[in-house]
Input
Amino acid sequence: MNLIFRMLRVLIGSYFKPKLTPDNLSSHLSMRVLPNDLDLNMHMNNGRYLTICDLSRVDIFIRSGLAKAMLKQKWQPVIAEHTMIYKKPLNLFQRYYVKAEVTHWDEKYFYLVHTFERKGRIIAQGTSKGCVVSKAGVISPELAIANVSSRLKVKS
Output
């Protein structure tokens, strides 16, 4: 159940944060390890890291305007590949921060780095490769960014 509340927190909170521009697509979220994040070893489950990465991408989608463009165009975001390196465990109720940053894109995919930190130390780091799709196929990142950029220019 806490995932619904976390998603609502990100959805609402994103509207009160500064808007992102195509040259600065990054998110920084503060989180805490909750009881249902734990595995049998009593630290945050490796799968939960991926879920938190999803939340950081949602923050980027909303703050950049990409979420609005995807809804209007009936596009969907899809993760094609994700890797994580786990360095230190996160234990019950520990606060941590996750930063997600779009580092670059090519003709098909957006590439992101996700960094989990606690007290200035990297706890885990991952990379993901994702795209935006429609019923007709993959939407190029340039087209997705153009949709966002045109919305930014209209508002300026």
Confidence is low (pLDDT under 50) at residues 152-156. The beta strands are 26-32, 76-86, 95-105, 110-118, 121-134, 137-139. The first strand starts at residue 26 and ends at 32.
